From TrEMBL:
<keyword id="KW-0813">Transport</keyword>
<dbReference type="InterPro" id="IPR006059">
    <property type="entry name" value="SBP"/>
</dbReference>
<dbReference type="InterPro" id="IPR050490">
    <property type="entry name" value="Bact_solute-bd_prot1"/>
</dbReference>
<feature type="signal peptide">
    <location>
        <begin position="1"/>
        <end position="25"/>
    </location>
</feature>
<protein>
    <submittedName>
        <fullName>Alpha-glucoside transport system substrate-binding protein</fullName>
    </submittedName>
</protein>
<comment type="similarity">
    <text>Belongs to the bacterial solute-binding protein 1 family.</text>
</comment>
<dbReference type="Pfam" id="PF01547">
    <property type="entry name" value="SBP_bac_1"/>
</dbReference>
<keyword id="KW-0732">Signal</keyword>
Length: 443
């Protein structure tokens, strides 16, 4: 992540307000042009073709994506219909797959589902222009993320930046602290000084187990490095590995200090997302909250102004380099229709990504979508960190493993890390539980 010595307030300041406003309001502008990249759909030769695209997006997210689809329709003559899957993508797709009536393109919320549906023979590999567009516009890491057994199925369309910590500048000013660049500075200088000044440093979102996996992933990626991160995601090293234990010990620097968390341990475990955001900005009970760029929407709902009352800084470096962890959505083909591959080629193009970027509420993993395509400075900065991280950016680990281990409430990583938040005194025991759960999920 570049330019870490820049004053962190200069990064999100007023521009972040624009990011939240654009993300929350329906975009009124028409899709932009942008430079065409490899694989862009061209020619109006799909007249009469009808395609169905399904994703979880609703509201403004859906409206903006439909504007991107409108551009494809204008270029090709195809008719594209959007259908929302709701939050449970599997519940939507399962019956359609069984009934032989899946959408032409499904946009999956996690890479693990690519493997699951590929194993069911429910997906068709990328080919032709779609495959070429992916190779031209995406790094090797993103290409591999959408592949199963050396067969490429998926295109990462939309990213969520999960390596930022939000804070109240008023609280920082009162305590006389600055945004930290390292983990030690976060714990000892920033959090410690806030606590000494009578200001609770963190609101934790421990009742939402997925937020705890995000904490772990950032610490682990920075401390253990990208190679070990990949090996752990693939379960090529066990969760009892020293690197896992060390990451848990590092988390205990915060999780083991009741005075650093709003409501102490009990409060940390019982507070969900987005209540933790409200505790920082609406109720002003704490100075910081960790979660992704989408926190901006919750800040506004809390009555605060992003860029004025709410700022953010990069997740501090635990090891040699700060982490860049992203979540996101992957488009796959579920039909053999020619228009399906053409649509995927278009979605993988810089033109589609740039058009979407101009509408707001969006980050692209496409390496040929320039940072200055985004409408506000805050999003431009986030996009640039993804571009600059290059091959070291990593996808949310818990979404790469089987969902029974990484994405199920009350079990697996969620439950084990919640228990560790309650009592982080035995990281070795927590690592053993993680290994057992990972092994059970692999069976």
């Amino acid at each position: 992540m570049p330019e870490h010595k820049r004053n962190a307030r200069a990064v999100p300041a007023v521009a972040a307000a624009a990011a939240a406003a654009v993300a929350l309001a329906a975009a009124a502008c028409a899709p932009g042009g942008g430079e065409n990249g490899g694989g862009t759909a061209g020619g109006g030769d799909l007249d009469g073709a009808e395609l169905l695209v399904a994703a979880k997006w609703t509201g403004v997210e859906q409206e903006n994506f439909e504007q991107v689809l409108d551009l494809f329709e204008e270029q090709t003559g195809a008719t594209v219909t959007y259908d929302s899957t709701g939050e449970d993508t599997g519940a939507y797709l399962g019956p359609r797959i069984e009934g032989g009536n899946p959408p032409d393109v499904a946009i999956l919320p996690q890479p693990g589902l690519v493997s699951e549906y590929a194993a069911q023979d429910a997906l068709f590999p990328l080919e032709g222009d779609a495959e070429a567009a992916l190779a031209e516009n995406y790094s090797d890491y993103w290409q591999e993320l959408g592949s199963v057994d050396d067969q490429t199925y998926g295109i990462m369309l939309k990213a969520a930046h999960k390596s930022i910590i939000w804070y109240r500048p008023e609280a920082f000013d009162e305590a006389g602290v600055e945004a930290p660049q390292t983990w030690d500075a976060l714990v000892d200088d920033t959090a410690g000084t806030l606590s000494d000044a009578g200001i609770t440093p963190f609101a934790m979102c421990g009742a939402s187990g997925w937020t705890l996996t995000d904490w772990f992933e950032n610490v682990y990626l920075s401390q253990a490095g990208p190679e070990n991160y990949d090996r752990l995601a693939a379960h090529e090293i066990e969760w009892t590995d020293d690197s896992v234990v060390q990451a848990l010990e590092t988390l205990a620097d915060v999780w083991g200090e009741e005075s650093l968390m709003n409501g102490g341990t009990d409060g940390a475990v019982q507070t969900d997302f987005p209540t933790c955001v409200t505790q920082v900005y609406g109720q002003q009970q704490a100075a910081m909250v960790y979660e992704a760029d989408f926190v901006a929407a919750n800040v506004v709902e809390s009555g605060a102004e992003v860029g004025v009352d709410a700022l953010a800084f990069p997740f501090p470096a635990v090891g040699e380099a700060p982490p860049v962890v992203v979540g996101g959505d992957i488009a796959v083909a579920m039909s053999e229709d020619e228009g399906t591959q053409r649509l995927l080629a278009f979605l993988a193009s810089p033109e589609a990504g740039t058009t979407w970027a101009e509408l707001g509420g969006y980050l692209s993993p496409n390496g040929n979508v320039p940072a200055d395509a985004y409408a506000d400075e805050f999003t431009q900065q986030l996009a640039q960190t993804i571009l600059d991280a290059g091959e070291d950016v990593r996808y949310d680990l818990s979404d790469q493993v089987p969902s029974t281990f990484g994405a199920t409430e009350g079990s697996g990583m969620w439950a084990i890390l919640q228990d560790f938040l309650r009592d982080p005194s035995d990281p070795e025991a927590a690592a053993e539980r993680l290994e057992q759960a990972a092994s059970d999920a692999d069976e």
